[in-house]
Amino acid sequence: MRSITINDVAAKAGVSIKTVSRVLNREPNVKDDTRERVLAAVQELNYKPNVSARSLAGSRSYLIGVFFDNPSPAYNADVHMGAVLRCREAGYHLLVEPLDSTAADFASQLIPMLATLRVDGVLLTPPVCDSPVLLDALDAAQVPYVRVAPDGQLDRAAYVHMDDRRAAAEMTSHLIGLGHRDIGFIKGHPDHGASHLREEGFREAMKAHGVAVREDWVVQGWFSFQSGFEAAKTLLAAKDRPTAVFASNDDMALGVIAAAHQLRLTVPDDLSVVGFDDTPSARMVWPQLTTIRQPIANMAAAAADLLISGEMTTEDGAPASRLLDFELVVRDSTKPLKG
After folding, report:
1. Distance from CA of residue 62 to its chain's centroid?
2. Tens digit of each residue's pLDDT (9 = 90 or more) over 85-130
3. Which of 90, 113, 134, 186 is close enough to 247 for a disulfide, judged by CB 3.0 to 4.6 Å?
4. CA nearest neighbour of 256 among 217, 278, 230
5. Is 166 in contact with 177 (CB distance < 8 Å)?
6. Closest CA to 67 of 136, 25, 114
7. Where do runs of H (alpha helix) occur along 100-209?
């Protein structure tokens, strides 16, 4: 059978080829009824845009890149899923590029990679979204980029974020509301901006409720299961131990639960445990994890949308930004303190 072309869609909708292209690219200034006719024709004809042909016909490649250097598989999976679904809606494809931002030759790797990859834009996740070397290389190559949850230089480029500080404060207040005063905290990877914001939120809530922070109960983690396990053993091995532990992400919280089981502590009877992110593992572990639901996939989709739409700046020329909300999800890993 003959392949359906953009000409067939244009004829079916009674519009020009250029109008069909504008609708498929989600460009502005297309009348609603025209857009609906084109989309109806696309669906009825089962039209599938040819990425190679589209890229040859214009300056776009219809490829979006995702650059990441994150130890959490669940976080990365959510980012990739959110981005790929948005790209698929717009007829784009997603290229996923893992980076090692700690490598000695990191800077020298970037120039040939950016020269080889012909992408219309790049989505950057923590910690590479705050790498001056990478940002400078993208600027020099004139590759548009959107940052997900950046730590600083918010006036540099478009970004998508959530309020990590407020979310961590709400989680801490939740533990305090359950009667806990002896609360341990496991910090996230020090190169991630969110790690500092979550620690700030924890400290602010403790101060607001008049609860002292035990500095020996604030332990460094690295956003990995193993680092959470090791940190928890440090916190729980002594007789003088917290009654609750707030881990800065779900992977570390799972490590805390594993360490508690190894030490024959029952969660949540002997120890309440909370995390951050609401990755799928938070619902698979026993007991299920109380956590902050971070809209990771939606944040990635929003970042991809900014790249695809080209709406990278506001009317006054400032970088565009989108703030997404969070949710505190209470499950079985927390309960009121005994007595």
Report:
1. 22
2. 999 888 899 999 888 888 887 877 776 777 777 889 999 999 999 9
3. 186
4. 230
5. no
6. 114
7. 106-116, 132-141, 164-177, 193-208
